[in-house]
C-alpha cells in the first residue's frame, strides 16, 4: 500500500514537472512547445482602439 501511494505521488510529480516545462517553453529546442494563439489580422482590423473609454457601471434600480 505504501509503495503504491509513493509510486503514484512520484508519477504525479514527474507529470507536473513535464507539464510546467512544456507550458513555459523549456522544451522548445526539441520541438515540444504549446501552440501560440495569435490573430494579427484582427489587430490590423481595429479602428481607433485608443478611442474606447470604459464607463462606470450604472446603479441598479
3D architecture notes:
With 61 residues, the protein is an all-alpha fold. The protein has helices spanning 2-23, 40-45. It is elongated. The model has no long low-confidence stretch (mean pLDDT 86).
Keywords, separated by commas or semicolons:
mainly alpha, 61 residues, elongated
Summarize the structure.
This protein is mostly helical and 61 residues long. Helices cover 46% and strands 0% of the residues.
Topology:
Elements: H1 2-23, H2 40-45
Shape: elongated
Order of helices and strands: HH
Compute the CA-based radius of gyration. 23 Å
Q: Provide a count of the helices.
A: 2
Poorly predicted runs: none
Query: Per DSSP, what share of the residues sits in E-state strands of 2 or more residues?
Result: under 5%
Query: What structural class results from the helix and strand content?
Result: mainly alpha
> Quick check: average pLDDT?
86
Major sheet attributes: none
CA distance, first residue to last residue:
61 Å
How many beta-strand elements? 0
Amino acid at each position: 500500500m505504501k509503495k503504491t501511494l509513493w509510486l503514484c505521488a512520484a508519477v504525479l510529480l514527474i507529470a507536473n514537472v513535464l507539464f510546467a516545462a512544456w507550458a513555459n517553453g523549456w522544451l522548445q529546442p526539441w520541438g515540444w512547445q504549446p501552440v501560440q494563439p495569435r490573430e494579427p489580422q484582427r489587430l490590423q482590423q481595429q479602428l481607433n482602439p485608443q478611442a474606447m473609454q470604459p464607463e462606470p457601471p450604472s446603479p441598479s434600480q
